[in-house]
Write a sequence for this structure.
């Protein structure tokens, strides 16, 4: 029997031996434009069958690491607060068992669930944030917990200059102005990455990747494709530099697989996740 | 300039003269399986361009009636209660101006917004409900205002034997058992329609059509296609029998246009809406 | 080498021996809603590979008949008059060589090209017309040669009561009124077919099938899907009754294959064409 | 954690207690037209999430039965013989453990693997075969084990008048002639089902359903859509009559989910499988 | 009520105050390969909902400018000359009211309509032309007003060295030879842009952008995808250099949205249009 | 009549005068992930209609060369060995008639058929191999003739250092290790091309292009999209350098057109083939 497609890319360590716990968060209830990221964790697992376990970039196999894929959390349909709470509670358990959480979204708002746990445990937490959008609004259509608020909520937990943003190319005027004072924002590309890595060296780091940081030519399968993004190579090179960082958690968010029927976006999502896991797992 | 595509099928009476007000409710935040009904009102308007204004079935043109298409309500992203309130408030205004509201959904939960207003105004209100699903759960994943609860909420307002269901073929065991005692349920088809029409004659009637009452061969463009549904002719024939009823409001729900790239589902949605409006408008 | 996909279903008699000449007319320049029928002849040939040559309905193989598939006419891009002229000129040649023309459209306006030749040769010509739309406007957006005018143009050639329409369910009010006086119109279905066949018995008959006579559930791959159409069985049964008629020409129009990515519409188009050819070829 | 999507519709009994074993056979290596049925078992499991466990038709829940979903067999890429052997060997194990096998294909040739085991165990085995195609060729393009040969291979095992075919509408001339002498063939529909059920009463029965027996309007998601098929209701009614038969095994074959991006075909496949399991499981 | 989706990106100044008038020209009647650009203006308006009004590239909001979106012209189905005349007549009115016209196509031939008005008003007019194709044929399939002739027609109005072409990579041999003598052609990229801008400084400039100048990886949603095109960044950088030019009119042509179901091409079209408007509006 | 679409881009020399013979090999029976390359030859011919015959890159028309498009070989469904034999036999005939074979795949395993003939005729044969995947396994799922074995099989024929690989970015660990000793492998890009061309100068060269060497953003239409590939420009520039080589045969493999409904991948496939033919034909 071939049950390998039930986990991401043969990440089938058992929970006890695992150092990393992968889980899916299939929720997109506050998506303001085109929904569908709820299907990402399932599709990423299914399609990882087309990918090799070996990375020629890092000369490692993902199965060299003890990773447990725990499947998906039950979705709290229509209630983003409950979903975030459920993520936080599961993250807390992973962390208290001495393991690193890696979440597959789902919409970006869900990162509030993981990061609030990490921020409490690591007061010196720093965030590497790859995204097309600033996500820095305090409220959005009256909301405090939508995909557009996530980094603002994180800023409330961590304070100024803890968030390093890369690839940002969309937001409203006020967000860009606000960002100048409170976060380290790299517009359009990853040019400031080396400097950022220098600054977070040795400190606890959480990495949050909104796949839409990639250009829509590379990654059309997302709710709000935003032209002018970075290439696959740019994102890959960034990830390869994570080796050696003190990464304490990560997530990959916002694949909406139905919008790219060719499967290319899903293939990108899978490969980025493989490289990320090899780069940050111990 | 051709601005006709901005309204549904030339329904461009002005508000004051209008006897019927059409509006869109672009929200799908509690959809439990495949989202996307939020795009229905926009797509229905756009694609109505491919439809004639004349119905050979009723030998009438839709422009014979004074209908004002008021566009879409602003979506309350991620907050179904707020969205229902906003619908209720707009419906109240329409009704107090002496006009009949017709809503284009959006997910089925939104019918709670219109029906609560009608139920208050017409204590003797009866519901004709066309759907694949019972929608009769008190709670669903802890929710009271999702697409799966809508007719239960309506039953709370109106009591036993006010809801006539047609085409029902999916639900859990308890719902079907509960239905036997509290509503008049016609499973799989519209066989009991004539008897139902007899019983509601002269009384205020609200008609709620979940497009998924149609078989997926006719209407694949919906979040949860449920095989074994009624044909286009069966639904059309039901609608033609509404002529002469005392209809005080109506809605057409659950088109998710992206799932049917052929456009056939949208064409069905448009034509059903045209026939419904001609049948119930004064 | 397998060159069979270059002709429709092994219709590869040579021209001289052929009694029937099949040709494609890849043009959709006056389509008012969704274009794309220009691709039909090519796709029908390619996909006929998935179909058997044997009809269990008629217990015959299509290769029992001498049919020459002559490929496609060169499209006169943007000039419907020139395209119709080119079709007329090719039809004239086929007819003068003593063969029967069968055209694969393209938009319905092109039937003017074949029928004008047949009408001149057979003053007593009768038309069996299967369509969702009346196509009976004298002018349409100022046009005299669009898909919406084709049967009116034919009426000008042949006069009253020569056109028998089936499956009609869309048009403007005036067309339906006009039809009552000038053509024999069967709305919605093929109920009047037996009577019509009685009337055209022995007379020269041209059959024009707009595939959109079929319900969109059966045939979504067309520019203007019109719900409420006939089933595959209904159309097939009609075709089986053509056996024994004096058919002098035919066409199958308005497949727009890109709108039905499943290929089901194309499969229907191929099978209808196979059955039609077996039924009318000598 | 929500691991329910890893099995079909909560069929998560453990192997020992199970009376029925469901397994996937993801192989389409001899498909002659459009491949893709290899993805069916995975997609059927994933999408079963949109279906209720309760059947209003049979007033039962699928979880009333002890069914173990064992996942997919490893595909023997490019080698149909090896794949059939692997299916036969797994089937033998299921049967020797006193359980009933139910296979989700994959291409139809794979039924040879299950049926050869059942035929050996039950010399009096009878086959109920629902299909668009005769599948009765001895060889096909030199092949003996393709989808076009499957029932001929079965006939070699069982002899004349053991195979009852329903819905057949495609094949070559010789197959239809051969069928008259060796099998009980119902062309186009299920009209002869009651008589067939009478004849197989009490005898061991294997049911093989090629989903393409359904009309392409209902089920476009298959490699060779064949217009003129039966409706969902017709197939459902047939299945409801299986109750009480001595069914010893079954399969559902030939969903190619990629060709129907709407998901409607997959929904049909899921619901047919739910009803089939409820009807034949003990 | 949310009527913002009825105009492009909140371009809802009233006509009188507006300095720029945006209008759609939904016509593709002479398209020689894959039609569908007629749907572009509608889809661009609808999807602009997913875009911010603020440009971080230019640090401006589009609503800083007075732009009136007048909707679509009525299509002259099947008659390109009439359509061009109708565009010319509307352009004349805009220009005589002292406003700048910006057209959303539709096929490229339609630029003849706007440019003929501008050429008459500004005898010294220069053209910046971004395209994959030369569009420099005098006649094309006998046509003088197809998408393949548009720049030749413009050359007839303006004479040698008034047209600057960028990104050109497709055409016939004669066109490329002819171009060397009559226009300033930059093959494959925008390398010569700075020099061109130097030459047109202070002079009246019309900008015509065929979206297919972009590589198909960035913009697959067009009738004739032509590999080897420029990147989004290259086109964006060109647009940012328009600031300060004396632009008197512009158009963006040849989005065929149906060919890119992911919506990425439409997102590119919207963003290019936003940046263009911010760069050239006063 | 327009029969041009029956050959690739007007490659309609007759066999006797032709110096190059193009043929299709529509087979994908050992594809391990997503099948569908069998449809590539047909679709490439059909869609070449949208491409010019003139290359501005090489300032030549493809019709300057005598190329015969012989159509497709008959597929040996389900039997890769038989298919390879059939290709080898046809290749032998082409070569013995003094012509150069160019194959359009189909899956990559089929290159074994052409190369085994060339290797026998030219003992000094060298291979230029463009691919995402190493394809260097001796066996794959027990297979010796799948797409994953092709270059290993070729190495058996030719020995060490005859195969130059470009763009490789996927394989298992052992393959990459093995490659270091036996082939000249350029990972990720075409950087080592000039050196390779130096080494093969004057020697007989066979060029095998797996289209998936291109990045999925450029070419999503393939069975296993592998992110991180080369751009269209990189591949084009490589091809332009083939001018002057002693090329004795070539192939272009692994377009699976159904996965890219936009048609962009097919357009890339067509243009690459045009440029390749102009570069290597005499």
């Amino acid at each position: 029997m071939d049950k390998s497609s039930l986990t991401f890319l043969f990440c089938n360590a058992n929970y006890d031996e695992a150092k990393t716990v992968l889980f899916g968060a299939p929720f997109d209830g506050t998506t303001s434009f085109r929904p569908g990221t709820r299907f990402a964790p399932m599709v990423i697992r299914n399609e990882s069958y087309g990918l090799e376990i070996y990375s020629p970039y890092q000369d490692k196999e993902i199965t060299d690491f003890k990773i447990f894929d725990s499947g998906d959390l039950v979705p709290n349909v229509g209630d983003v607060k409950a979903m975030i709470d459920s993520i936080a509670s599961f993250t807390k358990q992973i962390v208290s068992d001495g393991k690193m959480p890696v979440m597959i979204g789902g919409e970006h708002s869900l990162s509030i669930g993981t990061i609030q746990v990490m921020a409490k445990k690591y007061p010196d937490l720093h965030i590497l944030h790859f995204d097309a959008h600033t996500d820095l609004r305090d409220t959005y259509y009256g909301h405090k917990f939508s995909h557009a608020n996530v980094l603002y909520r994180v800023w409330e937990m961590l304070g100024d200059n803890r968030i390093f943003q890369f690839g940002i190319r969309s937001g409203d005027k006020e967000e860009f102005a606000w960002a100048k004072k409170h976060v380290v924002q790299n517009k359009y590309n990853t040019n400031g990455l080396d400097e950022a890595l220098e600054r977070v060296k040795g400190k606890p780091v959480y990495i949050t990747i909104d796949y839409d940081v990639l250009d829509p030519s590379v990654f059309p399968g997302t709710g709000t494709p935003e032209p002018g993004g970075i290439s696959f190579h740019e994102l890959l090179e960034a990830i390869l530099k994570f080796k050696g960082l003190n990464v304490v958690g990560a997530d990959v968010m916002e694949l909406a697989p139905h919008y790219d029927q060719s499967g290319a976006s899903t293939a990108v999502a899978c490969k980025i996740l493989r490289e990320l896991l090899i780069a940050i797992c111990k």
